[in-house]
Design brief:
- The protein has about 260 residues and is of the alpha/beta class.
- It has one domain (about 1-255): Rossmann fold (3-Layer(aba) Sandwich), CATH 3.40.50.
- It contains 8 helices and 10 strands.
- The strands form 2 sheets. A 7-stranded parallel sheet has the order 1-10-9-6-2-3-5. Strands 4-8-7 form a 3-stranded antiparallel sheet.
- About 40% of the residues are buried.
- The structure holds 2-amino-2-deoxy-6-O-phosphono-alpha-D-glucopyranose.
- 2-amino-2-deoxy-6-O-phosphono-alpha-D-glucopyranose binds near residues 38, 39, 133, 134 and 141.
- 2-amino-2-deoxy-6-O-phosphono-alpha-D-glucopyranose (GLP) binds near residues 35, 36, 37, 67 and 140.
């Protein structure tokens, strides 16, 4: 796993955006895995800037989102459909028919989840999956105890996740209790993983995910099993890493390594 530590949120977002843009430059029809939450907002802003000012083209891109709340319509202000539309899709040129987001209102969740997994495969698999991390160490909505081989399915959210996300709703009782989420196994099949975290509230989860044992209790620790995972952090999110100086050393020296 590669750990990149940046001073500020903005530098972290820009570094991750460069990584995604490099994938698109080498594979213009790449399949991107999208994440929601406040963390990737800066990354999306930078990708929009690259699109508008530097011609980064999304016209052949396909996207699959990680998750959606059960019970929220695509128009609901707090749905992940709405989040993606408002913060990214409305500002870039991804064809509408290439955008996939789990349905929070299907009448048959089991069938929907199976179809979603099939669509990912039919589109050639995800080239790069963007991820945030919950304060309990979850990725997507894979709460503690989720199998590291889990697939897209309906999940019951942990009380701590509902509390964390209550800030986006009028009251805590409005936060959905269930979500549909890609599984850890689904995520691990992506060719490349890019996880972002900022702020000291994520420092403990990051230390456990990066340096702790691989465990279903911290589903982000599954990134240790992936051959191409990069974790982008701001200074605050990196503060509990025991090997912080080592990551900074590697980050400094790696660009000078002999070319492959
Ligand atoms: C939710 C999402 C995750 C996200 C997490 C953290 O639980 N399902 O994908 O990583 O929130 O959100 P934030 O970036 O707002 O801290």
């Amino acid at each position: 796993m590669e750990v990149i530590i940046c001073e500020e949120y903005e530098a972290m977002s820009k570094a991750a955006a460069r990584d995604i843009a490099n994938v698109l430059n080498t594979k213009p029809n790449a399949v991107l895995g999208m994440a929601t939450g406040s963390t990737p907002l800066g990354l999306y802003q930078e990708l929009v800037r690259l699109h508008k000012e530097e011609g980064l083209d999304f016209s052949q891109v396909t996207t699959f989102n990680l998750d959606e709340y059960v019970g929220l319509s695509p128009q609901h202000e707090q749905s992940y459909h709405r989040f993606m539309h408002d913060n990214f899709f409305s500002a870039v040129n991804i064809p509408r028919q290439n955008i996939y987001i789990p349905s929070g209102t299907t009448s048959n969740y089991q069938a929907f989840c199976e179809w979603y997994e099939r669509r990912i495969m039919e589109c050639g698999g995800i080239d790069v999956q963007i991820l945030g991390i919950g304060s309990d160490g979850h990725i997507a909505f894979n709460e503690p105890g989720s199998s590291l081989q889990s697939r897209t399915r309906l999940k019951t959210l942990a009380k701590s996740t509902i509390d964390d996300n209550a800030r986006f709703f009028d009251k805590a009782s409005d936060v959905p209790i269930y979500a549909i989420t890609m599984g850890v196994g689904t995520i691990l099949e992506s060719r490349k993983l890019v996880l972002l975290a900022n702020g000291s509230s994520k420092a403990k989860a990051i230390a456990e995910a990066v340096e702790g044992p691989v465990t279903s209790m911290i589903t982000a620790s599954a990134l240790q099993l992936h051959p191409m995972a990069t974790v982008y952090l701001d200074a605050a999110a990196s503060e509990q890493l025991k090997m912080r100086d080592y990551y900074l050393w590697i980050q400094d020296k790696k660009p000078g390594a002999p070319a492959l």
